[in-house]
Amino acid sequence: MSPTIVSACELGRPSDLENTLPNFPLLARLLGFAHRFPSTHIAIRDNTSGACSSHLQLLNDVLFLRNYLYSLLDEEVRTMLGRQEEVFIILLAPPGYEYTVGFLAILALGAAIVPISPHVPIHEALYFAEKSTSRALLFHPKYIDLATSMQKQISSKRFTSAAITSLFNKTLAADSIYISSSNSLNPSGAGLVIFTSGTTGPPKAVVLPREMLSSGTQALADHYEISPSDTMLHMMPVHHIAGITVCFVPFLLAGACVTFEPFNVERVWANWKTGRFTVFGGVPTMFMRLMRYYEEHIRFSPDHESYVQGVKGHRFMMSGTSALPRPLRLKWFDLSGGKRILERYGTSEFSTCILTPLKRNENVPDGSVGAVLPGCDTPGIFLRYHEDVEATQSAFDEEGYYKTGDIARREGPYYFILGRASIDIIKSGGYKISAFDIEREIISLEDVAEVSVMGVADEEFGQRVAAVVVLKDLSKTLSIESLRNSLRATLSSYKLPTMLYVAQELKKTASGKVPKKALRAEIFESGRYVKEIQIYWLKSALMRAKI
Questions:
Q1: Which of 313, 474, 475, 526 is most open to solvent, judged by the fewest CB atoms within 10 Å of its CB?
Q2: d(C-alpha 181, C-alpha 167), whole Å
Q3: Which H or E run contains 175?
């Protein structure tokens, strides 16, 4: 049975309006799945709370929360929604069922979703609220203290906050839920606000169109051939673009099951061992830790084969944020029975536009993130940086194309990301050097667990190639002479690091990125680690400038 489309005048009873969803592809597809699938078909599984929901139960909870939130909103905000003006609402919740209901409830309200991490300090939460000009806060009850502090410190008396509660109560039948024919959400209107990682400056509020949650994510669902038979193990941050538009919404659109659980290497392997999962998405750090756990705890265990079969049972695994080191990628290729981890390239401003093909990807060159996704030059790009006209204008060139700030090269249809122009391209002795190229070779060394390479100012050479290295065995050490000797076979002499700091760990953002500017300032520019930094002194004659 298909969803019923009605207009307000056709309903007759005001109470029926509470059971009506606005006309928007994602919501319409969810209602279609509620008609199509039995209650035993799970849409969302939350392994933290134990909640399991069908599509029908999910929509019941979305309608209840949407109506409850609307009843609390200031009259001015209600009027703005009625006129389809922009209204921004913060979603403060961890990955899970409450997050999903809150996300869809804000969408069904006609507002823009502003997801923020519940683990941020109060001053950051207030910055996000102010920068996004949010008019309300929807929060998980577990984080009532942070929500209460925000409510007290936000000056506007018209700011509303509401907890995501009373779920799993209402049980409307699918044919009692309607899609409105008179209230269609504008696909070009503001639908989602993502704050940039802040690795190259203060976080900016990226306003994305609702289209990103429909045709934009549908393109990914089609690319990966996601279907209702898929089950996604979701362990990515849900205030980050990939956690929403790559690992979450495409699976909702396709009728697949999304299983939420915080990242924990032991739990990932336990989940995989069940054989229930067909898709996994992560970042290189996750894959590195998972492989290390396998090598240390699973490889020689009696039930080793059960774990391996769980890996092989995946249709695909995908990775983003940064390139997978080649040795790590090859290990996963062997363990999965010859399946390549699918890499991609994207930003907060346009989600994903370059992808490794799902099939026939053996010709994708080593180190490439893939080819351009057909249709990526569409209006699916971000609308603006909210309340920042200057930054928005400077983000586009004269022809209207967005400038990513990244440097790439292309071989045929395939792209290689060399890094951020501002931090990953090192200008040393007249050469332009990709930090990624050096990181790729250092991470290949047997004793190295993690590495970050950057340029550090130098009077003679402009910049020195500096490396921060974390060793697998933290009790060991590494000399810069030994590091350079290990790299001579794979790197030109001008690319060899001349500064080295051996660290206990590399701090990362929630999206798995190393904030290099902050790391450089702390390690190489603060003066606090002068004794620990190793420097290799070059003679000028050995490093003549390349003109």
A1: 475
A2: 27
A3: none
163, 148 Cβ separation under 8 angstroms: no
Largest CA distance in the chain: 87
User: For tokens 């290799």, what's the residue?
Assistant: 536
pLDDT score of 1:
55
Residue 146 has pLDDT above 90, yes or no: yes
Run of H or E including 495: none
Written as one letter, the residue type at 192 is: L
Give the residues across from 319 on adjacent strands: 282, 343
What sign for the dihedral angle of Cα 176, 177, 180, 181? negative
Query: Closest by alpha carbon to 47, among 234, 260, 258, 256?
Result: 260
Euclidean distance between CA atoms 331 and 284, whole angstroms? 13
- The whole-angstrom separation of Cα 442 and Cα 454 is 13
Position 17 scores a pLDDT of 79
pLDDT of 227 over the 60 cut: yes
Measured CA to CA, the distance from residue 490 to residue 331 in angstroms comes to 20
Residue 512 has pLDDT above 80, yes or no: no
3-state secondary structure of 270: helix
Q: Say which residues have a Cβ less than 8 Å from residue 300's Cβ, sequence separation at least 6.
A: none
Helix 304-312, helix 265-273: angle, nearest 10 = 80
Alpha helices in 180-259 (DSSP H): 215-223, 241-245, 249-253
Q: Highest mean pLDDT: which of 125-139, 158-172, 199-213, 417-431?
A: 125-139
- Among 92-101, 181-190, 397-406, the minimum mean pLDDT is found in 397-406
Q: How far apart are CA 442 and CA 438, in angstroms?
A: 6
CA-based angle 183:184:188, to the nearest 5? 140
- State the burial class of residue 180 (Cβ atoms within 10 Å of its Cβ: 0-12, 13-18, 19+): buried
Domains of the chain: 4-185 (3.40.50.980), 231-420 (3.40.50.12780), 425-542 (3.30.300.30)
Token pair listed for 122: 């109060």
The DSSP bridge pattern shows strands 431-434 and 425-428 to be: antiparallel
Count of CB atoms situated within 10 Å of the CB of 290: 24
What is the SS3 string spanning 9-56? HHHCCHHHHHHEEEECHHHHHHHHHHHHCCCCCCCEEECCCCCEECHH
Q: Is 394 left (phi over 0), alpha (psi -120 to 50) or beta?
A: alpha
Find how far residue 218's CA is from the centre of its chain.
17
Rounded Cα distance, 69 and 52, in Å: 23
Tokens 């047997």 belong to 446
Alpha-carbon distance of 384 to 363, in angstroms, equals 37
Euclidean distance between CA atoms 114 and 348, whole angstroms: 13
What is the pLDDT, as a whole number, of residue 376?
67
